[in-house]
Amino acid sequence: MELQGKVALVTGAAAGLGEAAARKLAEAGATVVVTDIETATGEAVAGSIGGMFVRHDVTSEADWAAALAAVEQRYGRLDVLVNNAGITLMGSIDEMDLAGFRRTLDVDLVGTFIGCKLAIPLMSRSGGGSIVNIASIAGLQASANLVAYNAAKAGVTLMTKSIALHCATTGTRIRVNSVHPGVIRTAMLDKVMAQVPNPQELMEGFVAVHPIGHIGEPDDIAEMVLYLASARSRFVTGAAMVVDGGATS
Ligand SMILES: NC(=O)c1ccc[n+]([C@@H]2O[C@H](COP(=O)([O-])OP(=O)(O)OC[C@H]3O[C@@H](n4cnc5c(N)ncnc54)[C@H](O)[C@@H]3O)[C@@H](O)[C@H]2O)c1
Hints:
This protein is of the alpha/beta class. It has one domain (7-239): Rossmann fold. The protein contains 8 helices and 7 strands. Nicotinamide-adenine-dinucleotide binds next to α1 and α6.
């Protein structure tokens, strides 16, 4: 129960990696605020872990302000923020249109920017804390058919370091790190598979690039989130934590 007394907010926590992180943080004793654009599943996750659900589109500054105000009003503090909500639109520079490129950056990068910007004052008032930005190995290495996602996740990678440096040098006691999953079995993966003509071949390709011999599970990433959220990682900030079965090695 290493997060007893702590309050955490996880975005995109109605499913996938966000849900797994929310459950892991709750198991460790945190009070978890589940946020998502999917109300029914988000409420179900929040209900099952004794937390609060807030409907929240991460691209909306007004939604962020309302979500954080609700957290402060109900719990008086915020110790952990997990910027997890994200989308993947596949496409090369030839295939991707401007609207898809902008949409990907808006959800994956701008949403994380707004979250950090608006949560830092509340976390500072709470005596510090930990921000975990879910990036991807696609933020570290490029694929020809991921032009928008590569741009967004690479942005999250260096933006995380910039915010970490700011927080470390201004006495906020807030640590900021990114997590870089390899391919993980979630609904997002199903959505990616649905965008290609031969999903079976794509899956075989995914497995082949993970030297460990299989793709990951949401809990593999949730364990890293818990470590970064906890005091065990008290000397870790500005780090890009890779959890990818050796894919980028
Ligand atoms: N699954 C993978 O293989 C994988 C690999 C690397 C990184 N990631 C990253 O992990 C994060 C979670 O991915 P996942 O696989 O769990 O995806 P998912 O699609 O299963 O779940 C994402 C959740 O985010 C929510 N969401 C989408 N847009 C939103 C918005 N504008 N505001 C608020 N919530 C929104 C969705 O409703 C959904 O509940 C993403 O940032 C993704 O880029 C996933």
